[in-house]
């Protein structure tokens, strides 16, 4: 499966003089192709949009976009840019190079192409995006790209991976892998591509210039892909004079209420409302009594339950009764059927579904750390579908979902 890895189009690079500039981003993630569908791009785009929103960007998010939707969104994006804005374009999905030009593939296009030349008419040239940004103050382009070629009928007419693009003044273009090579989709079940995962990880670090950030991402992706068929080596080119920082000094991050949860790409999920960090796998330990559940949470560390966050034993714990009550989304409480956890999706726009931020969420019976005051033999637990908390004997069996404090 060939996939275009994220295109973060040239952003204005932020130094102290440019911190006040308006930040504008267009994020596109295409997964639902009729030929060679992809698992990561929609997740990549959602998580990127959420993170950029926290970092002060005015974000437009498009998922599973057809050609008309992509072109209209790019045109509207360009109208928001001027010499005093920082512009960012991000694309995750299929892509291809043909005759020295890169093309971003809409979800409705692959099955309608029978020749390489059709790319010019049924795909979106990456140069079209760059053209809309040419009068902008400062730009960044990042391509999280290229898996196996989805165009089996005419693959020999296409170059491998993506090709280098003309780099205009004030522009940084970053590729998920070196031009002309392919990238790895990641382990089965991973929410994000390796490139996006590490990109999201470093974007929130303060006082890290974009070029230093991309070097850290390159090192992390190379290390992660050393034992795969092809070592992935991210690449970037820049024609910028100043440094850009996603977070400068003690700049406060903005939490946008439209994004309740952020998948951190390392086995953890942040609740943007409370700042608490939850284990992504909500059913790693199964049913346990209260004492065992507390020990399981306390002994949790990076390397267990899908964690790659560097956490150590003693950092994790059971949630309190109050934290459970705050976690419940009352809009999705089901007191009749008991078959839906009262939990919103990552974007905060609907009910939680498997794999959207969390995995393995049960509808009932999660232990809290709070004991029942009249007697230490009892502790509180949450029944996750009806939204109630109850107390029960600590020797009874309940599910375990660890949490840890804010970062």
Mean pLDDT: 81
Helical proportion, percent range: 10-25%
Q: Under CATH, the topology of the largest domain is which?
A: Rossmann fold
Strand portion, in percent? 15-25%
**Regions with little confidence, pLDDT below 50 for 5+ residues:** 1-20, 153-161
- What is the number of E strands? 19
Helix and strand run: EEHEHEEEHEHEEHHEEEEEHHEEEEE
CA(first)-CA(last) distance: 36 Å
How would you characterize the overall build of this protein?
The chain is an alpha+beta fold and 407 residues long. The protein folds into 2 domains: 10-239, 3-Layer(aba) Sandwich (Rossmann fold); 268-404. It is built from 8 helices and 19 strands. The protein has helices at residues 41-54, 67-79, 119-122, 126-132, 194-203, 210-224, 290-299, 321-327, and strands at residues 10-11, 22-29, 57-63, 85-92, 95-98, 101-104, 124-125, 138-143, 171-175, 235-239, 261-263, 268-271, 277-279, 287-288, 366-371, 378-383, 388-393, 398-399, 403-404. Strands 1, 2, 3, 4, 8, 9 and 10 form a 7-stranded mixed β-sheet that branches. It has a 4-stranded antiparallel β-sheet with strand order 11-12-13-19. The chain has a 3-stranded antiparallel β-sheet with strand order 5-6-7. Strand 11 and strand 12 form a beta hairpin. The longest helix has 15 residues, at 210-224. The chain is elongated. The two termini are 36 Å apart. The model is unreliable at 1-20 and 153-161 (pLDDT under 50).
